[in-house]
Design goal:
single chain; about 70 residues; mainly alpha; 4 helices; elongated
Length: about 70
């Protein structure tokens, strides 16, 4: 399967499962696509636990919303 064929297949899956439009698919990172597909397959994505409150607080400090 070519890159174009694989990308079209994955874009269709992302659109059908999560309602992603083409620009959202192309803007997503491979990690985000993997997490989306794993969530619908019943997996846990990367196997890492979600961030706890201290990590979220540090991220908010590092990346304020203006």
């Amino acid at each position: 399967m070519t890159f174009a064929e694989t990308a079209a297949r994955l874009a269709g899956i992302a659109g059908a499962l999560a309602g992603w439009r083409p620009h959202e698919f192309w803007a997503a990172t491979p990690q985000e696509l993997e997490t989306l597909l794993a969530a619908f397959a019943g997996g846990g994505g990367t196997g890492q636990p979600p961030p706890d409150a201290s990590v979220i607080a540090a991220l908010k400090e590092q990346f304020p919303d203006g």
